[in-house]
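Human:
If only I could read backbone structure tokens as easily as an amino acid sequence. I am handing you a single protein, as its sequence and its fold in token form. I hope you can help me see how the letters and the tokens relate. Thank you; the sequence and its tokens follow:
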Amino acid sequence: MTPVLDRIRVGSAPDSWGVWFADDPQQVPWQRFLDEVAEAGYSWIELGPYGYLPTDPVRLTDELDRRSLKVSAGTVFTGLHRGPAVWESTWEHVSQVASLTQAMGARHLVVIPSFWRDDKTAEILEPPELTAEQWGHLARGMERLGRQVKETYGLDIVVHPHADTHIDTEANVERFLDSTDSDLVNLCLDTGHYAYCGGDSVKLIETYGERIGYLHLKQVDPDILAEVVANELPFGPAVRRGVMCEPPGGVPALEPVLQAAQNLGVDLFAIVEQDMYPCDPDKPLPIAVRTRKFLRSCGA
């Protein structure tokens, strides 16, 4: 019998259409993304990179309403481990995205830490490990961000562990959670990135359930991941090799992840994100249709 996952709200994101940047000739036009995500059977989307979708709330609302779509979250990128000196520029970027996110009726802001190596060129930008002082900056900075975003825009921040950032492995994710206030900072658990970095999503949900505020559903091809690890490939080239794959063909198995999330007894978004930048423009829709069908078979 198929389980009933009535606390899980499934959606998708521009990422699943190969969109990583606000403007890039290799990406599908935003109108096509909206048409196809609705056609695939999703009703929730994320904003994606700021500026990809229209940033005028009236126009964007009209475009979404015509396709029966709603926004679950916006996304921001931060480098708060660098300390108070980056606060003003960070807040300027966050305010822009948070304002639109709030205007679209969403309640979450996904916060991605900055990369320590460039995802296009593989250039090492910073040491891959933080110092104790930088961990302190990161924790206090995220708490400050969580407080200010909530007070100013009424949104909850959910921090997204990500490959090639300083919040990646099980040890680093747990360190981050243990050093931040759960009233201000929670987690967007991306099942693919966590598996990419060696983590167990079900274990994390069962251990830190009260900190799981949002989910990204993604799978990793274990054979390609083994090559990536052996050759120390950066995330961008790994994606081009197909390391993030169509479910249910990779790891982690999504059924137990969704069941563990359902067992938390709270409403959670579970947004499909299959990194495919760059990709043929005709590739995403059939995958999205099959993925939605697979998730329905899981009860979501």
